[in-house]
Design a protein that fits this description.
Number of strands: 6
Protein name: Squalene-hopene/tetraprenyl-beta-curcumene cyclase
InterPro entries: SQ_cyclase_C, SQ_cyclase_N, Squalene_cyclase, Terpenoid_cyclase/PrenylTrfase
Keywords: Repeat
Number of domains: 2
Family: Belongs to the terpene cyclase/mutase family.
Pathway: Secondary metabolite biosynthesis; hopanoid biosynthesis
Strand content: under 5%
Length: 566
């Protein structure tokens, strides 16, 4: 049996922390080098070709060239560079090439259509909204055989704000873009035309509200994919030419040197929140290099309400002060702020915690954007709920705080029969299960039957090499191994110690020569259909797992310090 010494763990922590700190910019923000996105690029190419064919011909040509180079030998496309062929990016890339480069891309389109059919076509897409989107783009490109039946979007939903928020949530802007595209795809009868005349200015007003909230940048949530869908809708309908022009300008500013676009161009707050919690666990909470990051958190707390989703001020987005406020990043940032040495005197932490409590669903869960939403991709989510619990706990809220108690009661009803939990925004099921186990354990429920069963599921799904994957026997990742280690450590159960030690040894062994860890595609962009890596999250999770392991080992009096086995 090989052993990893406590000194080796400490060395991995120091090297990993310094590797992460090298990603810090002078303004305190942690940067990344994300892979280019097929969805973002295909959408941008199609939208720019429709909205600005002459002025953006250079961008369209470069994007088309990039898409052609990314096509796999099997004819399909992955969601991001390095990903295997998937239905959604293949359908969107085929449609974009057929629309914007019918001659240049003819051979690629033919191969893509064949691969799309081999993968089951759009019928294989489990997300109904994404399936409709694929059908609409294919229909626009004249590929009706691949598109299948296209249903009309009920644009009239925008006339009812409360219903629209709960049923559309963060998909409001791409929904409006798609609905505006349908004007010449699905002719309406007399009655429908009358209702659309009422709904259309309201829908455009929603786009304008987002546009104004973001400082009229045209970024539309800092994401080329929904920005492209909105631009397509505006180009087809002729509405809001000033917004269309701004989106074109933003896409030009956001393009990569290789002619592609990222999945999301700005995750500054996401990365920085994780970075600080990871570095704090590694013992760097008082490091002066993190002061600018706290200043960044203070400067980007939302000062105004986001009326489109009825979110009050006080939270954070994933990008900047003009972004859309979101529970997941806000909870992580609150945990980060709570880890600073003088957190008790931080007024931003206090107001952020009040905001987080106010965003709790009536059922006790937390959703991503809209309270009590009915949209499956927004919430309620066991992992987001657990992250909110951890933020409140990290900030010193008692275990019996009403918000924590209500969240615990909800979580205890959400386990699958085998004990696992879901995670909407990271790959199932190790991530969700581990975060729930950690949250419930830290607020006094480590010995509850639900937690014990979930922890046993984690232990039973550990792979022979000591790592964890998603729990289905496929290869392990640094991220899922780190999540599992944190979850099992939080229980304090001696029955999990061997599994934890093996996981820690695996993390130490997986570190590269520069101290960092390899990132895997565990972040969900479209659940079940597209994932991407985030290297800062990877480093932070590994540091948290190793840091918490070191702290637990130091606290134990019944184990001789020195080695952990693998």
């Amino acid at each position: 049996m090989t052993a990893v010494t406590a000194e080796a763990v400490a060395k991995a922590l120091t090297a990993g922390a310094e590797a992460l700190l090298r990603r810090r910019r002078a303004d305190g923000v942690f940067g990344d080098d994300p892979p280019a996105s097929v969805l973002g690029t295909a959408g941008a190419v199609a939208a720019l070709h429709a909205a600005d064919p002459a002025g953006s011909a250079d961008l369209v040509d470069a994007g088309v060239g990039w898409l052609l180079r990314q096509q796999h030998d099997d004819g399909g496309w992955g969601g991001v560079e390095g990903a295997e062929s998937e239905v959604v990016p293949t359908a969107v890339a085929v449609a974009a090439l057929a629309l914007s480069a019918p001659a240049t891309g003819a051979e690629a389109v033919a191969a893509g259509r064949a691969r799309l059919a081999a993968m089951g076509g759009v019928d294989a897409v489990t997300d109904r909204a994404i399936a409709l989107l694929c059908r609409q783009l294919l229909t626009m490109a004249g590929l009706t055989a691949e598109a299948g039946p296209l249903r009309r979007l009920p644009l009239e939903i925008v006339l009812f704000d409360r219903v629209r928020r709960r049923r559309l949530s963060f998909r409001t802007t791409p929904f409006v873009g798609l609905a505006l595209m349908q004007a010449d795809l699905l002719p309406a009868g007399r009655l429908r035309r009358a209702t659309l005349r009422r709904a259309r200015p309201v829908a455009v007003g929603l786009l304008r509200a987002v546009y104004d909230h973001e400082g009229r940048t045209g970024a539309l949530s800092e994401d080329p994919w929904p920005a492209a869908l909105v631009l397509l809708g505006l180009a087809r309908s002729g509405e809001a030419p000033d917004i269309a022009e701004a989106v074109v300008g933003w896409l030009r500013r956001a393009v990569r040197p290789d002619g592609a676009w990222d999945a999301v161009t700005n995750l500054d707050l996401t990365r920085s929140g994780y970075a600080v919690t990871g570095l704090a666990a590694a013992g760097y909470a008082a490091d002066p290099r993190l002061r600018a990051t706290r200043d960044f958190f203070h400067a980007t707390q939302k000062p105004a309400a986001f009326e489109v989703l009825d979110v009050p001020p006080g939270g954070w987005s994933y990008s900047n002060v003009g972004g859309w406020p979101v529970t997941l990043e806000s909870a992580e940032i609150l945990s980060a702020l709570a880890g600073y040495p003088d957190a008790d005197a931080d007024p931003v932490l206090r107001t952020g915690l009040e905001w987080l409590v106010g965003r709790q669903d009536s059922r006790g869960s937390w959703s991503l954007w809209v309270r009590d939403t009915q949209l499956a991709n927004d919430g309620p989510c066991p992992a987001i709920t657990s992250q909110a619990i951890l933020a409140l706990h990290d900030a010193g809220h008692p275990d019996d705080h009403p918000a924590i108690a209500r969240a615990v009661a909800w979580l205890l009803t959400r386990a699958a029969p085998d004990g696992r939990f879901e995670n909407l925004w990271y790959r199932d099921h190790t991530s969700g299960t581990a975060v729930v186990v950690a949250a419930l354990s830290r607020v006094g429920h480590a010995r509850h039957d639900v937690v014990r069963r979930a922890a046993r599921w984690l232990r039973d799904t550990q792979l022979p090499d000591g790592s964890w994957g998603p729990g289905d026997g496929t290869a392990g990742t640094v991220e899922e191994t780190a999540w599992a280690v944190q979850g099992l450590l939080a229980t304090g159960g001696p029955e999990h110690r061997h599994a934890v030690d093996r996981g820690v040894a695996r993390l130490v062994a997986a570190a590269g020569p520069d101290g960092g860890w390899p990132a895997a595609r565990v972040c969900n962009y479209i659940r079940h259909h597209m994932r991407y890596p985030n290297a800062v999250i990877t480093q932070a999770l590994a540091l948290r797992a190793l840091g918490e392991h070191r702290r637990a080992a130091q606290a134990r009096s019944d184990v001789t310090p020195g080695t952990v086995a693998r």
